[in-house]
Amino acid sequence: MILLSLPRRRTILATAALLSTVVALGAASPALLAQTPAARTAATAEAAPTRSGHAEVAGARFYYEVHGDPASDKTPLLVLHGAFMSGEAMRPFVTPFVASRPVITIDARGHGRTGDIGGTMSYDQLADDAAGVLAALGVKRADVLGYSMGGSTAIALAVRHPRLIDKQVVVSGGASLDGWVPEVLEGIAKLTPEFFAGTPMETEYKRLSPTPDRFASLVEAIKHIDAVPFAYSDAQLRAIPGKTMIVLGDADGLTLDHAVKLFRLRGGSDLAAATQGFMTAPPKARLSVLPGTSHIGIMAEAATIAAQALPFLDEQTPPMPEGFF
Q1: Closest by alpha carbon to 20, among 172, 184, 148, 196?
Q2: Is residue 28 pLDDT above 70, yes or no?
Q3: Residue whose C-alpha is closest to residue 231's, from 123, 309, 324, 140
Q4: Closest of 152, 120, 116 to residue 19, by C-alpha
Q5: Cα–Cα distance list, 193 to 107, 216, 217, 220, 271 (Å)
Q6: What region, left, alpha or beta, does residue 42 occupy, with left being phi > 0 and alpha being psi -120 to 50 degrees?
Q7: pLDDT tens-digit profile of 102-156?
Q8: CATH number of the structural domain 6-271+279-313
Q9: Quick check: 158 and 168 in contact, CB under 8 A?
Q10: What's the pLDDT score for residue 180?
Q11: What Å distances lie between residue 106 and 66, 86, 318, CA to CA?
């Protein structure tokens, strides 16, 4: 076996990470790892699900976790992870919401406790999988927050299952493959399982997966989903009934141009609000670009994103400052 130089190996791993992994993949958020053992135990207990298990969807079993009661009168929030991650890795995006609504996470096909279930990985398929899990849980309507691969899946869910999905919070995810920086896709195409040897991505996969020897299949599946062009049309995106919030970093792997286009297609750039200088109703779409933030770095901004997403999910009109009128 030819060993890669360390700088080249790190470059390729960083490119893979741009797809959507975190430094401490799934085991805990970076902030949680920095805490004392007692504080870490308390935070983990706080994020413990009230229910977990496997849902049967089209002959396959998908792992899920539920926080709270999806049958309550509050709209559940479905949280979707990125590539090489798991629902557990999205804990920073679960904890801020559990006090105000039920939260559901899913381990996507090939990932986490779902493991390798075969079949082709595409955003249409990932969306149908998630819709099937929600149906198995008896959820008739849900909001969704997705990161990276999960962000694109959130868009696919809204396009393919508009009666099921209401609001979407799309974090570093796109509506087409060409929304990504080309060099990122070129790097992903060069990945091999050997690049991940000994990394948190491989270690966490083996810890969680019921198919721990199938990591190479996951690498190939991720390479496939980021090599096959996909695009939801302008007409499909405009037709989504629920409102959309788009979040990305100013140094993200997703391009700013793509995010702005999606924002406008979803009803952003409200001329009335722009000309009168204030809003009298919740906007149709929201766009948040976090300064000094990369694709991985956005995972460290979960608290900031939650503070922006909660008023959006709660349909709040942006406040007016005092003293202007």
Answers
A1: 148
A2: no
A3: 123
A4: 152
A5: 20, 5, 9, 8, 49
A6: alpha
A7: 999 999 999 999 999 998 899 999 999 999 999 999 999 999 999 999 999 999 9
A8: 3.40.50.1820
A9: yes
A10: 97
A11: 9, 8, 31
